[in-house]
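Box 3.1 A note on notation
Throughout this textbook, protein chains are presented in two layers. The first layer is the amino acid sequence; the second is a token string describing backbone geometry. Keep the layers aligned when reading.
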Amino acid sequence: MDHSNKNVDRQKKRRSKNVVLIWLEFIPFWFLYQTIRIVPIKFAYKLIHLLSRLLLTVDFKHRNRTLDHIMHANVAANRKQALQIARQAFYSLGSLLVEIIKMDQFFKPERISIKSSPEGYDRTFGEHKGNVIGVSAHYGNWELAGSFWATLSDIPVVSIMRPFSNPLIGKYILRGREASNHQSISKDGGIRGLMRALKEGKSIALLVDQHASTREGGIETIFFGQPCRTHSSPAILHLKTGIPILPQVTRRLDENGHFEFIMGDMIEYKPTGDKEKDIQTVTQMYTTALEKIIAADPTQWMWAHRRWLNLNRKHARHYQKLSEESQLR
């Protein structure tokens, strides 16, 4: 067995959980799930917001990490303002859980407005609609985006599904993910499954705002002024097929089931012949596009994730030094 396979096996082992831990996590989740299913949605939101506030108070690790990331991205002027954004971000994540559990009870396409350029709307929902490569972020209600998009465009959408570390919880969460025109496939299928979907005239939807290792095809990019690695598969697919890339998120407007489907400018890039440079350029283009959307209202993004290479990572000091040196040039 080569070193790369050994590394993959070690990572899988770290992600796997023993049976006792799986059930210890699942039992309280099951009670919360059943409670949210039967109570009115307004009460469910109040309950989950209370739990989110409690979590923000007692979970020092993720609270401090969230505050560090908000300050690192320069979206808050001071720690007090960062705490306000962090509180709203925790609320947003809790609200997402409520909406996933009660998806069949509240989801109505007519409650979702669309914010887009004329070109983006025409390609996605208009007279000249066709399949696109959707890139999105863990923002607002990202679980709703695929179902809404497929329903309104009438073009099948395929998204990537990462396996849950707790399969019992994953089974319940996935119940509301797919619609009749929205299919999830395993990430193990890789780029071939996505290419097949595009050739069949389907759109694809990919979450590309989290850290991607070099093994996963991560390309170094800049996000909120700081170095990170971003999934390059959308760029590779775009350069191979010419199908445009659509940056988009689904922003929560209130707690009455109203959302805003925000689409950034369509990305269409003409290859130069330098494959590596082209992949880097396109990957940075959609990274920047998502940053612009998130920066307009940073309260609904999942800030706790270790996105940047120069903060809360093993080699953070090395990347921080490189970043400082580049700023001095």
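DSSP finds 13 helices and nine strands in the chain. The first strand starts at residue 112 and ends at 115.
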